[in-house]
Fold this sequence. Notes:
The protein has 473 residues and is α/β, with parallel strands linked by helices.
Amino acid sequence: MSTCEVAAVKPAEVKLVARDRGGIINPMYDCQPAGAQYAGIGVKDCIPLVHGGQGCTMFVRLLFAQHFKENFDIASTSLHEDSAVFGGVKRIEEGVMVLARRYPNLRVIPIITTCSTEVIGDDIEGTINICNKALKAEFPDRKIHLVPVHTPSFKGSHVTGYAECMKSLVKTIAKGGKPTGKLNVFPGWVNPGDVTELKHYLKEMGVDHHVFMDTEDFDSPMLPNKTIETHGKTTVEDIQASGAAIGSLSLARYESLPATKFLYDEFTVPNHLIDTPYGIANTDAMLRKISEITGKPIPESLVRERGIALDALADLAHMFFANKKVAIYGHPDMVLGLAKFCMEVELEPVLLLIGDDQGSKYKKDPRIEELKQTAHFDMEIIHNADLWELEKRITKGDLKLDLIMGHSKGRYIAIYNDIPMVRVGFPTFDRAGLYRKPTMGYRGAMELAETIANTMFAHMEYTKNKEWILNTW
């Protein structure tokens, strides 16, 4: 080519496509009841009652125990073969009464359906009416909220199950009334470290608030008096007051929006949906929105925290992250938020895997449209995906990756293909203490970037590949 000629530059292509197979190979999502159980354990004095076989509870509790290294109370109606013929509503009645008798402080029982009980058509709402009469007769001075949560396992995922339970809780318990002056904050399915970080921002800004769900105490202390504090901190009173808040801040389009939309439709609580605050720009937007809703200024302390994070990211971005190819899988709100964060630090998220079959919703997601407008590299976004989509692209040689980001269930893809991996999302059980570390906010951005850098540095040393770059100066 002569010096006068200009090479044609191929424009970047960002594609949103569905999985091209009928079956799931190596699923990256769990079922709807799992998500509903996670929402339920975020409420204080609440024990979810899962209406199905014991495995629907046992295996989910195992996931929670693996992730949080703590135990959570979740009950099962423990259906057997006879229920498939005669129905299982009697097991609900028995389960509710046993829980009420055994736990004197119990105030909420989400009744979570499964695939089997949805197929046989058990009347959950009708059974709740019967249970309420029995509870009133035996415990006239107690109020136990029975919450119907319809989560058949044969559709959706733990993401939609979480959203369904959140909506059912506010639909059953929330009340209107005199304005409280408090802000409802719905983070979605996040770790206790993220909840702690969000509460820190709200405290620094002097904002009265309720967090749904407040899982900060899932990182439970071990105290001398041997008390156990591993439970959600969101109370019945918090949920009741949500209908009289000054507004709802929804940080997760696919996990919390159904609940905040109900509060708007039923009680006219203003609903503010913003991008999940991963990275600097999204955190900036969240703090500006909180200031706009409440009239509270953003304090200098948070400006300083932002500056510290920016300095940390600048130390890493161009020198070590530029043009590194990344694949991300997990919850859609997390994946799309982390994709934007990656682009802030010059990483290139070339493959995004999100698990639910909600193609029509994803096509309207403004975050995907933003990625199409801003990406300078080819990107593929696959919905209704599984982990085989990631594996086959790597093994076929179609995709050259420098980093994988996702939960622990995909670790063998990284191990067998010798690609460094950073654990994010749920469940993460093969790295210590991740549940207490934030991924959101300024500190989350800084800690995540440093984790990415350290993972890549360790991989360089292990493979003896480009380790010299660390000693360049």
